[in-house]
Amino acid sequence: MKKLIALILSVMMLATVFAGCIQEEAGPGENKYNLTTVKEGYLTVLTSPDYAPYEFYALDADGNPTLAGFDMALAQYIADYLGLTLEVVPMDFKGIPDEMGNGKGDIALAGLSPDPDRLLKMDFSDIYYDGKQAFVTTKDKKAQFTDLASTNDSKFQIAAQSGTIQEDLAKEYSPNAQYTALTKATDIIAELVSSKIDGAYIEWDVAVAYQANYPDLEILCEVPYEAEGNVIGVSKGNADLLKYVNEALNKCVDDGEFAKFVAKALEQAAGDKFEGILDPDGNVPTDPAGE
Ligand code: ARG
After folding, report:
1. Section 248-271 average pLDDT
2. Does this model's pTM top 0.85?
């Protein structure tokens, strides 16, 4: 009898070990609402992880970069709500609307403003976060500017991230300045702190997040923008997906979960961040020239 119990126990233990393995493999999810997605059973999320506290690579205690930020926590929440396995595809922000239009993503979570021009390529969820826009410079350059109007001068070199609404703001408020489009939001920070540019248009909360690591950054003023707030881009015409994404999103906000994601993201954003492109294995490149 004792032998039988021992046998049953060891079989049960083995089963637990196998169950653990299966879970780690992350196959397709149960797809609770029978949604049509890019890859069956998966939620494919496009993002541009250069944008703390929205999405960025936080370095863990061992220096390994891990996707962090409240958009990424929200992506996981939505995937869990829908019973889908999360698959995040990092890319440059500029490529996101086209990739959504080409059917490469189910949703885009990238601190996306509801710019009506993008409606050709994606649908928008409800607003989930109220962002505002800023003009940013550095402490040593601050005295050159008085207000937003003073940025409109050909002696200034001004930047924004390619493909963003901040590019439109630069053209609207500083049309006479010399303009540079930069691929990543983190390039803007790097060029500001190394004095290659005089100022830039960037989102307020993003500027605040990078100030934690670069105290020389200075927010000059708020920049008016009519389509305030952030939305999730949803695969164009996928009405069921849009409905359940909104349901998940609103539950996340109403239950106070989203506020916790924001608090955690702000905490992580104040720690070490990795700002380059990872190698194909997802590691920080060892060869600096390859960054
Ligand atoms: N909110 C701006 C826009 O939608 C900028 C977003 C940039 N996002 C990013 N992950 N870099 O155009």
Report:
1. 95
2. yes
